[in-house]
Amino acid sequence: MSAIQKIKGFADLFPEDARSFTHMEAQAREVFGRFGFGELRTPVLERTELFAKGIGEDTDVVGKEMYTFTDRGDRSLTLRPEATAGVLRAAIEAGSIEPGRATRLYTFGPMFRYERPQKGRMRQFHQINAELLGSPEPQADVEVILMLEDFLKSLGIAELSFELNSLGCRECRPDYRAALTKYFEALDHEKLCEDCRRRMHTNPLRVLDCKVPACKALVADAPEIGQHTCAGCRDHFAAVLALVDKAGLKYTLNPRLVRGLDYYQRTTFEVTSGAIGSQTAVAGGGRYDGLVKLLGGPDAPGVGFACGMERLAMLMEKPEAPRPDFFLAVTDTREGTDAVNTAILLAHKLRQRGMTGECDYAPGSMKSRLRHAGRIKAKKCYIIGADELDSGQVTVKDMEDGEQLKLDIAAFD
RNA sequence: GUGAAUGUAGCUCAGUUGGCAGAGCACCAGGUUGUGGCCCUGGGGGCCGAGGGUUCAAGCCCCUUCAUUCACCCCA
Length: 413
Known about the structure:
By secondary structure, the chain is α+β, with helices and mostly antiparallel strands.
């Protein structure tokens, strides 16, 4: 009862689990590197206004899920709930965004949202994030989507589905919003859930995304964005789909796909899995033209995505623990000998030769030491017992075929 | 923020109507006086989440509290 426990929604990752994360990071570096993306690391703490402006005041993330506090200098700070705003802030601050020229960045690390934890949802969770800034072309959208697909493939995850949609732009989305609100007002909106009755005015796009069955039913005949988008958005999305088709990516069009962050424009996409509890999204992203400017940068467009690492970890096969090259067993149980010292120094020599392995700090029986070597799957067991110590030798037993030989310890110097 | 379930050994979990605290795995030792994996035997380990109540007697019943998990919601 006295021991301090970790706080709710935060997790400790011991090697067995941490290996999955390390592997994902390595694959991300590999795959994203092939696409010319460079790694960016930004702080976990930012000024609150960055997220309020960037993500949108009306979103759930900003409205009720942020870890916000006032620091000793009376500044309002927030633990980042997502990565894009911070990446853009950094890129703008460094002056590295030029409209018309692609800037390719990826980042990964912990994000924080104050929600009730459940399967696939932690208060501290980790995302892998990629942003392509400066390019308005539909090819940029496609490259980002293909890069995401390649990355997920590299993790060996099957049974994922890609969903695509276009949300329109600043020009045409207001038309669609108006049409939606009109549609909801015209029908019996008493049947909508409480949230949706509010949302139909404040943010009618979100009603499309509601999971309440009654709402789903009412939404079924709602006007679709495709009928209201401007020519520019239509052409853009058509070009995206055509190229994605040519690339051979399998996807479904989901006209109801609405993302929870306000900054998305035009192309949006989500990758989902049915195998991670009631959460389904393992990755999501889209185009966010206008966001860079909104955050005080040049008028440059952007596309990007985020993957939830905990969710990917649930779908991935766990990487095996690496097998040690050796276990160095001390079986000389006589009092006052130099066996352990000799063993530690020998182990050190082996490691300097590039081998991995552990060494006993206390002598034990041959049986228990060998059993331990077997348990940790050491390739070889080096044994220093009374005989070896007296003759200046070490016994090396191959744990695979059981063969063993004696070597002079001095030969390792 | 709302709802439900669960807290017993390091881990996964049994525990009957209230009647001596259990198993498997892991760890240690022995069976084999210096040789692992399989098998057998033994051993160490527990404030039964915490606090209060009922009772001759509580892991079990009642109340409170804390924690965890799942779901709603939201999203990666």
